[in-house]
Here is the input.
Amino acid sequence: MSTCTICGKSNAVYMRRYSGERLCKKCFNNSIEGKVRTTISKYKMLQPDDKVAVAVSGGKDSLSLLHILADIEKKFPQTSIYAITVDEGIKGYRDEALKFAAKNCQELGIRHKIVSFEKMYKISLDKLADILKGKEKNELSPCSYCGVLRRRALNTAARLIGANKLATAHNLDDETQTILLNIIHGDAIRIARVKPVLDKGHTKLIQRVKPFCEIPEKEIALYAYFKRIEFQNIPCPYAQTALRNDIRRMLNTLEEKHSGTKFAIFRSIERIRPALETTAKKEKLKDCKLCGEPTAGEVCKPCQMLQELHIL
Ligand code: SF4
Ligand code: ZN
Ligand code: ZN
Here is the structure.
């Protein structure tokens, strides 16, 4: 590859097809960090005196986000950053990822809080998966339970450490996949709610922000590699999102043939969302009558799930 189109000096190592740029390692890394800063200010994700909890799984995305936010924190000393890792109790997977999360936090000098399903819900995901296996009819996979219980665990942990923002590492690929998934599930109105800065909706909900929402997954992987960030790279044994995988493949094929497709989908939705928001019914959240956490109905989803499994 030829010379970097930004600095005009070093050899380019990456061709960014959607912008036509050829970038050297240094300019590539700078571009990712710059893009995160631009996204944060464009969507007003963070304020200088925020207390930010970062959801850190131990994978490439969340650890890259932690490194970049830690760097931003240095320039804004009023901001404080914490890492939260949810230990779902998946043997051979999350216990390994936890080591990477802890090691990176230690290197960066970031306080690290670990919350486990076992402690919070009195059951690990492995045990929950065993119960599901023994059931004759069960429409939900371990992933469906895991997603709902993890979201709750993250929110509760962030609230307990006094954070007012919860940053997650959802990237452009995650966001466009979710948009298409909602459409395929016939739940287009849901798109109004899945956005770069989520609505708060309840005093007990910590506002979620996604500083990577405009960065392709491939570029985060390259960033983590260039920065020599150590992360866990093996898939979860329960990963079973067949439809999401089909969408991922389809989007990657489209992106390969027509670069910029993922950005086009993301931007189209950004433009349509205000209209969708006027149609979408704003749910008034109340307190779950069992656990007191925010819910649209009488009993929250995590409590419903645990009740169905006779754990609550
Ligand atoms: Fe949980 Fe599914 Fe992710 Fe595994 S793949 S961590 S079960 S959501
Ligand atoms: Zn360069
Ligand atoms: Zn509840």
Q: What stands out?
A: The chain has a mean pLDDT of 93. The first strand starts at residue 14 and ends at 16. Residues 4, 6-7, 10, 23-24, 26-27 surround zinc ion (ligand 2) (CB under 6 Å). The radius of gyration is 20 Å.
